[in-house]
Amino acid sequence: MRDPVLVPARRRLFGRPTRATGLALMAGIMVTGGLPPHAWTGVLVPAGLALLMAAALEAPSPARTAWWFGVAHQASLLYWLFLLDPAKSIPTRALVPIQAILTILYVAVFYLAWGWLCGRVRERLGPVRALLAMPALWVAMEAARTAGELGFPWCLSGACAIGTPLQGLVRGAGEAGLGCAVAFTAAALVAVSARRGAGDDTARDARRQDRLPLGVAALALWAALAVGACLRPAPPAPAAGGPSRAAVTDSLLRRQLRLAALLADVALADKWDPARIDSTKVPYHDLTLAAARDGAEFVVWAETAVPNYLRFDTAMLNWTRRVVRESGAWLYLGFPDGERLADGPMRLYNSSGLVAPDGRIVDRYAKHHLLPIGEAMPFQRWLPFLGKLNVGQAEWDPGAPPQPMVVATDDGAFPFSGLVCFESAFGSLARQSVRRGSRCLCVITNDGWFGRTAGPRQHAWLARQRAVECGVPVVRCANNGISFICDGDGRVLDWLDLGQRGVVKAAIAPGAARTGYVRWGSWPVAWFAGLWLLAVIAAPHGGRRAPAPPPAGQEAP
Questions:
Q1: What is the CATH number of the domain that holds 306?
Q2: Bridge-partner residues for 478, per DSSP?
Q3: Which DSSP state fits 151?
Q4: Closest to 453 measured CA to CA, from 35, 103, 80
């Protein structure tokens, strides 16, 4: 016999399948279809969000509806996490699906929070204001996804225009600006779609009342993005810690620099095996010299291209110097690194460095935002015991935020910043490095763990977004995945796809960095969403508060 207390409790927690749940699942898959790596399908994102908002507006539990949307969306977006090759990074293959499920559920919590807040607004202020608040709360939710050690801004709604002429709209306020316009457009679609005599009277009337404010807001946002894309504000003066002002003004390189990125396509099973080090050395040596013969002045290798602690491995360091001297080119490459602090402990980094043509390592950058759990267990500053858990994390230490490094030529300086792997998903990291004086972004990564799935393609497209936001060229160099060079408008100049060995090369000039996003970031979006939400909450009541929809299976009184 079923316990009459436990059964309702389970139903409250998991809920019976309802029409709203079905719509939420469908909406989640629709939104995934509108995001990278799919091009020209971005219209599915506002359509899917409109379906979610309509379902949440009428659902007995908006939080549960949003939760199922998040699960469906993230599971279809991140399915490739289940297919990761653990190689030597994860103790057992059994942990792969466990980590994948935990990642999906973690991100789904943000959608749960959005739905809960929407439900509270509906309960206290009625469905009219709930619909008005939904897009602003969506903007806040996506901003929260980028914050902290567990930040995971993978394919936010503002990524729906990558690879289309509309991708230039992120110049004004970044990915968040486009995501804000998409969210308000979705809410406006919900309001416009309300038909007389269809559905619940309360929800239908609420949707009709919101047509004008949401429609005006959506049109105003798209117009603002168009204006912002045309603005060319002067780039800010380099911040402290970057190259001197002269390096990015008077002595900035005025011509194009011939640049090459190498895709060595080293198998992961060989890469970390000391007995197979030639599987790394031979392709990098041959491709570097080939690029130099074609005129490359600056060569880029992938993340951990040298799988040894380079500065402490004399043999590999001498080999690297010999390759650089033979080529006569500048080299930016990834390698593990470490340093011993004054109080004794050793800090280990997923690092990179700039090597001058004479073989000297003239600058280094250690990855600042580490992949949670994959590269370090988060929150160890407050909970040190977490560092003793072994789920396959590399346990790197975070480095300082990205700073410009300078390729010095006889004709001027070429300042660039490195972004290592996962960091290319963070527009704020790219923006801050450009504000410090960078005029190019070099993204080095190792996508071999993802295989031939949507993962490396999603990752690559996010790097193009950084180029457009910041108005600077991007060089992306992957060990096994996609490598390309694009200009400051996101136009791809050269490209190598998955599983190919070769060189991508192009001549690029330092970017102008004259975008509204570099100048003002996403603050205009934050101010707009904040003021909009304040107006929704603080505006005088227009009448009796409408009741929330009754629980499933019950009739309204």
A1: 3.60.110.10
A2: 445
A3: -
A4: 80
